[in-house]
Amino acid sequence: MDTIASLFSFITTPVSWVIVQFHTVYGALFGPDTGWAWGLSIVSLVILIRICLIPLFVKQIKATRAMQTLQPEMKKIQERYKNDKQRQSEEMMKLYKESGTNPLSSCLPILAQSPFFFALYHVLNGIASGHTIGVINDPLLASARKAHIFGAPLAAKFKDGSDTIHALGASVTDVRVVTVIMIVLMSASQFYTQRQLMTKNVDTTVKTPFMQQQKMLMYVFPIMFAVFGINFPVGVLVYWLTTNVWTMGQQMYVIHNNPTPGSKAQAAYLERLTKHVTHHGKVGRRSEKTIVKAIVAKGRDRNEFERKFINALTKAGLAAQSDGTVVKSTVQATAQTEDGAPVDTTEAAARRQQPKRQTKAQRQSGPKQAGEPTSLEKSDEPQDAKPAAAKQPQKPGSGTRSKAQSGQRKGGPQRSKSPSKK
């Protein structure tokens, strides 16, 4: 560990300078030689580093979700080229390039944080050995060696002998009790963070090897922290416990406000969002609009939870728009079907007003003559409303003429009813 820490000695001076600046502030409040002043200086260093790493954390989330999406395709490539490792690697790189993902992006926060971690370890190791390092001069070195956190010196380790610990002004029991408690809390926070990610923020519709890897890491990381923690100084344990708690809180915030599509966290989030939107009739925060916009843009590719969200809005008389807003469906010009296809409501209304389809007999009868009353019009007329001519008495021979006009011959052989062939 000392050899690795010495490789990052170039960043030791900036890290020690930041700690000294925070120590100046907290020393004025709690006293320069107290564990509160030095301990809070380390905690503040962690918070400052993690705030600077927030953009990388966002990139890590996007990369992790992209990798989850690509897992089925990666599995197909592995099965197709299982006997050709070189071709398999080429196809994998091609898939990464086409999708714009990078496997290393999910490790960026850890890689970026590593130099600061080893630089802090180098600083605390110098304090334990009694050597000035970075901007920590002799007065600051003496002050740091006097600082104790719950009875354990900042530079003390679990495996230190009694002589070393007594030289720092503490007892072996105090050091080991404090270090064990910190190691347990550090491992537990890491396990909870990973378990929270696996149980709530993973797409349960896709079963991939990536999920098995994450499940394995859920148990491996806490064991690693427990093994390496006994070699860390108390100050480094404070640093690592703080960063684990920060990661846990950051992960909880992401799961609550921006869950992975298809996960249990998304189902809970959309349920909360449905209640809020149906109660207020609108989407409030910008992050909510972004999620609604993404759901609308998916169209037919929506998952089960997203379809339930759209259906719930429809039942409430609301409709999600492409810009992420929600409006009343009665006043909008276009609506959306369950699968996301836009439908013009005016066109739908026109289709509803079209007459029913005619039967075969009605089509064969031909179009009605202009001016001929329809069946509805005929039914509306009174039965006794007949033409005046029909009420007049018929003249002699009028019936014969009417028969002749209708094609019947008078007193001779009757004409065939079939049409004549010309």
Q: Could you walk me through the main structural features you see in this protein, from its secondary elements to its overall organization?
A:
Mean pLDDT is about 75; it is low at about 330-355 and about 370-410. The longest helix is centred in the middle third of the chain and has 29 residues, at about 170-200. This protein is mainly alpha-helical and about 425 residues long. The strands form three sheets. It has a two-stranded antiparallel ribbon. The protein has 19 helices and six strands. It is about 65% helix and about 5% strand. Helix 4 packs across helix 5 (about 85-100) and helix 9 (about 170-200) runs antiparallel to helix 10 (about 210-230). It has helices at about 1-5, 10-30, 35-50, 55-80, 85-100, 110-130, 140-145, 160-165, 170-200, 210-230, 235-255, 265-280, 285-300, 305-315, 345-355, 360-365, 375-380, 390, 400-405; strands spanning about 150, 150-155, 320, 325-330, 335, 340-345. The radius of gyration is 41 Å and the shape is elongated.
